[in-house]
Design goal:
The complex is a heterodimer of chains A (81) and B (420). With 81 residues, chain A is an alpha+beta fold. Chain A has one domain: Alpha-Beta Plaits, CATH 3.30.70. Chain A has 2 helices and 6 strands, in the order E-H-E-E-E-E-H-E. In chain B, helix 3 packs across helix 4 and helix 9 packs antiparallel against helix 10. Chain B has 2 domains: 247 residues, Aldolase class I (TIM Barrel, Alpha-Beta Barrel); 86 residues, Elongation Factor Tu (Ef-tu), domain 3 (Beta Barrel). The chains are: A alpha+beta (81), B alpha/beta (420). Chains A and B meet through loops of A and helix 3 of B.
């Protein structure tokens, strides 16, 4: 099975987010701006040691990758394996 | 030393950049009258590794107040709607912690601070360049930072008008005028640049500038394929601002605050620039400001991080010089030796574990630490295991007498010359 049919894990180093809003613009079903501290939230993510993370189904990987690519401080990562 | 005899009495406030407790202590020890710093992502150094947090505000205020140093928090990015709650929370925290003022550019921050009586300084991000703008923003603030693109006569005119028209700040006192004295310059109007946003989605106006202007570029005529030679390829990277040589003119113009830029820089950088400008400002009061001193000050400023030093736009040049280099032109750099493992206060001796680079009895050195700030020295009489040695190697514990107190965990660097 090729990678593109696998689900992915998306992680968010929220602490270093600078609240530019790009992820929420490009991938609104997964990302939203939190008005309490001006940073973005990865919807339904669980907090690990330092990162927030959640599974993403393969149809939604590209949209999350677009968010990751647009992030000016590289705090969003999409892990496909 | 021969003085020009020019005495320019003044009470100009010297403001230092602070990105860590180390730098804060260094700025205080070096003679700063005030410091500025940022917390969270809403400041123009949002990317900097060394920003403070909410929990640090009370301590910053306490340490600074003890030394009579005023504290200003930068909250000068553009604010989006989703930032407002955080911005208000920061301003509330400034008030609660006893920080003296915020430096702001967005009316959302300015009007909120006004509403809870937190002092406001108008950031250079608003590019205030004429007396009418000054008058307008004086309604909301007590200090205005002028645009870095003004010339000294333009600044002088504004300061004179403030006196003549008796323009006062919100606090009822004559409005303070601040200008940049030293540090980085922008190819665009101070931070109001979209280059980083366009290329990297990373907005300079949100404190996330990628500084891609600092790289080298080639300009090629697509039609003829001729490459334009523009002195060098750093066609977007201006040299840094340095005003120690025109400080007499700046002070004479009537400015009341001189800001040194560099919140992302190290504590020894802060130490060096604050000491130099402190001496320069003091010498104007004493009437001992001289060209010989300017030469020496410039030399000292050249030892720490710089992209080449120029007078920026202050002397009315059509454009500033290009830096001609990527990054640093400093004539000296520091190399980590190791960390302090013990200090013997009665005899004033430091014990350092050499972890990175060997340490020699001929070295010039600097300690930096959270409480120590910066402590310099040279030609240490070093001992290893009680024996006098010439050089202490890695993994050895070296002891030597130091001029002041250092503390366990402080880092020791040696200062080495950079060959051309």
């Amino acid at each position: 099975m090729s990678d593109s049919y696998q689900d992915a894990t998306v992680t968010h180093d929220r602490e270093n987010c600078i609240g530019c809003g790009m992820c929420a613009l490009l991938c609104p079903r997964y990302w939203s701006m939190n008005p309490d501290d001006g940073k973005s939230d990865l919807v339904d993510a669980k907090k690990g040691k330092n990162l927030y993370q959640r599974k993403v189904v393969h149809e939604d990987i590209d949209e999350n990758k677009a968010a990751a690519e647009a992030c000016p401080v590289n705090v969003i990562k999409v892990h496909t394996k | 030393m021969e003085s020009t005899g020019k005495k320019v009495p003044h009470t100009v406030e010297l403001m230092a950049p602070v990105g860590s407790f180390e730098s804060l202590q260094a700025a205080i020890n070096a003679g700063a009258d005030s410091v500025f710093f940022g917390i969270t992502q809403l400041n123009m150094r949002a990317r900097a590794a060394s920003n403070f947090d909410f929990k640090d505000l009370a301590e910053i205020a306490k340490i600074s107040q003890k030394h009579g140093v005023r504290t200003y928090l930068t909250l000068n990015t553009l604010l989006y709607d989703h930032d407002l709650k955080l911005a208000y929370k920061i301003i509330d925290a400034v008030k609660a912690a006893g920080i003296d003022a915020i430096i702001a550019a967005d009316m959302a921050a300015i009007t909120y601070a006004n509403s809870i009586d937190v002092e406001v300084h108008i950031s250079t991000q608003l590019s205030i360049s004429n007396i009418e703008s000054v008058k307008f923003y004086a309604q909301y603030s007590d200090m205005i930072v002028l645009a870095r693109e003004l010339t000294v006569p333009m600044m002088k005119n504004i300061c004179t008008q403030i006196k003549e028209q008796d323009i006062r700040g919100r606090n009822g006192k004559p409005l303070d005028i601040e200008v940049f004295g030293h540090g980085a310059m922008c190819v665009a109007i101070s931070g109001r640049c979209s280059m980083s946003l366009l290329t990297d989605n990373s907005s300079a106006n949100r404190g996330a500038c990628r500084q891609n202007c600092r790289r080298s570029y080639k300009i090629i005529d697509e039609q003829t394929k001729t490459q334009l030679k523009v002195e060098n390829d750093y066609v977007l990277s201006p040299e840094d601002l340095c005003t120690v040589g025109l400080l007499d003119e700046l002070v004479d113009a009537g400015i009341t605050v001189l800001k040194l830029e560099g919140r992302g820089r190290s504590a020894d950088y802060v130490d060096t620039i604050v000491r130099v400008y402190r001496e320069a400002l003091d010498s104007l009061n004493e009437g001992t400001y001289s060209q010989e001193k300017v030469v020496e000050w410039n030399k000292r400023l050249g030892t720490v991080y710089n992209r080449g030093l120029s007078a920026g736009f202050y002397l009315g040049k059509p454009f500033v010089e290009w830096s001609g280099i990527y990054g640093n032109k400093a004539t000296k750099r520091r190399e980590l030796v190791g960390a302090v493992t013990h200090y013997y206060p009665k005899v004033g001796i430091a014990e350092v574990l050499v972890q990175e680079n060997p340490f020699s009895h001929t070295d010039e050195y600097v300690f930096t630490g959270r409480t120590t700030g910066v402590l310099r020295g040279e030609k240490p009489e070093i001992q290893v295991e009680g024996e006098v040695v010439g050089v202490a190697q890695k993994a050895e514990k070296v002891t030597f007498k130091v001029a002041g107190r250092v503390r366990e965990g402080d880092r020791l660097y040696k200062i080495v010359g950079v060959s051309e």
